[in-house]
UniProtKB/TrEMBL annotation:
Transmembrane segments: none
Location of the Thioester reductase (TE) domain: 14-147
Name the record gives this protein: Fatty acyl-CoA reductase
Catalytic activity of the protein: a long-chain fatty acyl-CoA + 2 NADPH + 2 H(+) = a long-chain primary fatty alcohol + 2 NADP(+) + CoA
Family per similarity comment: Belongs to the fatty acyl-CoA reductase family.
Lipid metabolism keyword on record: yes
Keywords in alphabetical order: Lipid biosynthesis, Lipid metabolism, NADP, Oxidoreductase
GO cellular component assignments: peroxisome
EC number: 1.2.1.84
GO molecular function: alcohol-forming long-chain fatty acyl-CoA reductase activity; alcohol-forming very long-chain fatty acyl-CoA reductase activity
Xref: SUPFAM superfamilies: NAD(P)-binding Rossmann-fold domains
Amino acid sequence: CKTADDVSLNPTFFHQVSIVFHSAATLKFDEELRKAVDQNVRSVMRLMDICDRLPNVEAFIHVSTAYSNAERDAIEERIYPAPAPLDQLLALVDAAPPQLLTEITNKYISPKPNTYTFTKAIAENVVQQHGNQGYSVAIFRPTIVVSSLRTP
């Protein structure tokens, strides 16, 4: 994923963006934790940093999943506490050798059933904790996301 500094946006485009949708993710339930964090958590952090630089952005909509809290009996329309502290998670995936990370993943993400739901829950907290930057944020939790038959 690119950082805000890596992205070169045409100044005209930069001023025309008012709504940003983030729907990119790895959907592989058993994705290696490091890759799942990069694609499902860090991508949200990076895109929100880019949004902070957009002068006319009014809203950021993050596509999560209804299964981000699948271990709960009932899921309300609220953000639940993160299953792990963000700074701890980022330090772990940055420092742990791949073999060790593989060995500890299931215990670390528990009670989440897989790295997909674990990282999507963390990402929801990232959106919430990013704070009020002068634009609205929303989290959309569909039960399934599929591609279209053809472009609209």
